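Entry for the shared binder. Reason: the reviewer on the internal report wants the predicted structure included alongside the sequence.
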Amino acid sequence: MSHSPSAASPSAASPAAPRPTRLPGLLLGLGLGGFVDGIVLHQLLQWHHMISDIDDHPVTTVAGLQANTFADGLFHLATWVFVLAGALLMLASWRQGRLAPTWRFQIGLLLAGWGLFNVVEGIIDHQLLGVHHVRDDLGGPLSWDLGFLAFGLVLLVGGWALNVAAAREYDHRT
């Protein structure tokens, strides 16, 4: 019994198989972008914590550092939930017969999700709520906040463009 090429190769699925959905990749990008922020900026560089710009919780006191560490933990829990939701939705879409995403399709969504995280977090936490800034250890953090937003926009637009280009490849297959 011989196997057809489409049965041997998951990327050579039948033309009737719907293309991958975008939501799982975006959720994974949101969560992974949050992990990068939390691990690199909060823990490794220690530039800020979730509530480090709130006067009641200064990072210069043990109580303030405890409150900030707890808030960082809740933040990491939320980013983990985004990653879990993205992974579960991706598995569900595969079980529904959707194609697995190509690398370009998926990387584009991961970058766009990371950029979306940066833009939303940068506007809400840095500007509107003012709970922290990218560099709370500096006297004038606005330039760092604007750079963070600009980097997020580049990730969002670039990732989305990469995903749209990859999605066109699926559309041309049918």
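Summary line for the report: Residues 62-95 form the longest helix (34 residues).
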